[in-house]
Amino acid sequence: MFDVIVVGARCAGSPVAMLLARRGHRVLMVDRSSFPSDAVSTHYIHQSGLARLQAWGLLDEVIDAKTPAIRTMNYANHGIPLVGFADPIDGIDAVYCPRRVVLDEILVNAARRAGVEVLEQFTVSDLVFADGRVVGIRGREGDGPDREFRASVVVGADGFHSTVARKVGAELYNVRPAAGFTYYSYYSGLDWGLHHKTGFHEQWYGTWPTNDDLNMVAVICTRRQLKEFRQDPEARFLAVLDDVEPEMAQQLRDQGRREEPLRPMRYPDNYYRQSHGPGWALVGDAGYHKDPITGWGMTDAFLHGELLADRIHEGLSGARTMDDALADYVKVRDEETAPVYDYTTSVAELTLTPYLETVLGAISTSQEWTTKMLGIIAGGVEGYEIFAPDNLDRLYDDAGVPQHKRIYEPS
Fold first, then answer.
1. Are 391 and 375 spatial neighbours (Cβ–Cβ below 8 Å)?
2. 133 pairs with which residues across the strands?
3. What is the pLDDT of residues 63-92, one digit of tens each?
4. 411 touches 356 (CB < 8 A)
5. pLDDT tens digits for 263-276?
6. CATH architecture designation of domain 2-42+100-175+269-343
7. Cα→Cα distances 327→133, 150, 288, 305, Å
8. Is 288:184 a contact under the CB 8 Å cutoff?
9. Where are the domains of the chain?
10. What is the pLDDT of residue 112?
11. What pLDDT score was predicted for residue 266?
């Protein structure tokens, strides 16, 4: 009998399991994959996410894996540039973009060191119920026989297509249609740093350095361009760079060498999902997903994994009922993520609303305001520090925006 079973061992599952085991709870974690292994990902970890790795004693492992430090951000949205870097968060003055084959193994090994029992290549086929509560899982390791494990709580950290969510009938809410699709790969021979740029024709490209002296290069286009893109992905990939940043597109042709095939990423709609019930909870993409354009997936997995582990510990220790603890986890998660969810689903359209065009244009006139905006993106500055009406007035005054052109809220 375990205290907690975690289904899924990557960016959300491993932190939950590790943190609970460090508090003395008996934890089983299962995953259908084996480690090290790769996963489709943006790789980007914001400073607030890195702060959690640092608090857990794992950031040095990411750095020691020769993950490059990034200390300049080159953002542009429809010709409005934001160049600089956010102020440090908990002393962290860089961001890192580790490949998942590196990061996920660090996380799984940390869970093992904490005392978590880990079963790899284990596929969950069903949940075990008793008196209306989830009390365990059923599945098999590789081609082995069916096995059943019991626990006080089962955590689904098993992604978009969560088996745990499906088996408990968890409903979606606040759903917003996915706007785009992504293709990406890895290139050697480039020294570009971090770029994140949206062009004028509903196309975006991003690039950032990762392990093994490679740059991840990605493009995003709107869904209506998908059929054309699929007809010749390599040509269309380069055409996006030609459109958004022709000089860098030429550098890619002249100096870059693609080291792996192009990888498509067609993601589901943006959503929240019912994330707790009797004996179960969801974390990571299993419970909450948004467009990858803002790169918040892994950082949210860390933040919410820690939040969930704290609440489960409260339930297991008797500080509050488990049902109350899990309900509070979802309440806090939903409240804290609402601003980023709104911003992400807006910029994912690859157009710029009059509101954002006005605000970002004003921000770009000042390094002080640019640093503050990059701090919001990094997770170290609250959104109201720019977007509250009185702060917008300060911004508009500093930028010299006339009264008749000031916009204070999205239309």
1. no
2. 130
3. 999 999 999 999 999 999 999 999 999 999
4. no
5. 999 889 999 999 99
6. 3-Layer(bba) Sandwich (3.50)
7. 15, 22, 15, 15
8. no
9. 2-42+100-175+269-343, 180-265, 354-405
10. 98
11. 87
Bridge partners (DSSP) of residue 188 are 257
Angle, CA of 297, 189 and 40, to the nearest 5°: 25
Q: What is the CATH number of domain 180-265?
A: 3.30.9.100
Is pLDDT above 80 for 101? yes
Reduced 3-state DSSP string for the chain: CEEEEEECCCCCHHHHHHHHHHCCCCEEEECCCCCCCCCCCCCCECHHHHHHHHHCCCHHHHHHCCCCCECCEEEEECCEEEEECCCCECCECCEECCCHHHHHHHHHHHHHHHCCEEECCEEEEEEEEECCEEEEEEEEECCCCEEEEEEEEEEECCCCCCHHHHHHCCCEEEEECCCEEEEEEEEECCCCCEEEEECCCCEEEEEEEECCCEEEEEEEEEHHHHHHHHHCHHHHHHHHHHHHCHHHHHHHHHHCEECCCCEEECCCCEEEECCEECCEEECHHHCEECCHHHCCHHHHHHHHHHHHHHHHHHHHHCCCCHHHHHHHHHHHHHHHHHHHHHHHHHHCCCCCCHHHHHHHHHHCCCHHHHHHHHHHHHCCCCCHHHHCHHHHHHHHHHHCCCHHHCCCCCC
How far is residue 364 from each of residues 79, 80, 349, 399, measured CA to CA in Å?
Answer: 10, 7, 21, 9
CA distance 263 to 366: 38
203 DSSP β-pair partners? 221
The alpha carbon dihedral of 328, 330, 333, 335 has a sign of negative
> How many residues can be counted in the chain?
411
Measured CA distances, 158 to 8, 121, 173, 219, 341 (Å): 5, 13, 19, 26, 21
The amino acid present at 373, given as its one-letter code, is M
Non-local CB neighbours of 264 within 8 Å, separated by 6+ positions? 181, 182, 183, 233
pLDDT value of residue 411 = 75
Considering the entire predicted model, what is its pTM? 0.96
* CA distance linking residue 319 with residue 261, whole number of Å: 51
Residue with tokens 């806090």: 332
Alpha-carbon span 262 to 278, nearest angstrom: 42
Residue 104 amino acid letter: D
